[in-house]
Amino acid sequence: MGTFSAAIIPTERYQDAHLDLDFQHKTARLDLAPMRLTRKEYDLLALLVQNAGEIVTREALLMRVWGYSTQIKTRTLDVHIRRLRKKLGDYADQYIETIFGIGYRFQPYRPPRLFRVASDLVSVGA
Questions:
Q1: How far apart are CA 40 and CA 81, in angstroms?
Q2: Could you report the per-residue pLDDT of 66-94, keeping only the tens digit for each?
């Protein structure tokens, strides 16, 4: 018998309470509805999601999504981010964070925490 070596399998899907990206089929859904994204919008969102929690620099995004060198000055990234945010609707600010002068960061959705005020607490024993 041959030896078995475990291969690292990249994540094929990102899923949370609102957003679902299937990296294999290159599809995105928001609240179960298909998102109508251009190829570049999808590539940009997928790259950010695959690096969730990490700052992805403008230069890295331009190089990986568009193939632009760092010498090219363009606003296309900002235009595409703006379009993505519009398509993400109410969740845009939760998902895509601008790191001014550096790049962008995707933050996975976190449901809001529920807090109880002290007046709702009941004291036990006295």
A1: 10
A2: 997 766 677 899 999 999 999 999 999 99
Rounded to whole angstroms, how far apart are CA atoms 57 and 88? 21
DSSP symbols for 47-107: HHHHTTTSEEEHHHHIIIII---TT---SHHHHHHHHHHHHHGGGHHHHEEEETTTEEEE-
- Residues contacting residue 32 through CB under 8 Å, at least 6 positions apart: 20
Cβ neighbour number for residue 58 with a 10 Å cutoff = 17
Is the pTM for the entire model greater than 0.90?
no
CA distance 28 to 89: 14
- Asked whether the beta carbons of 56 and 48 are under 8 A apart, the reply is yes
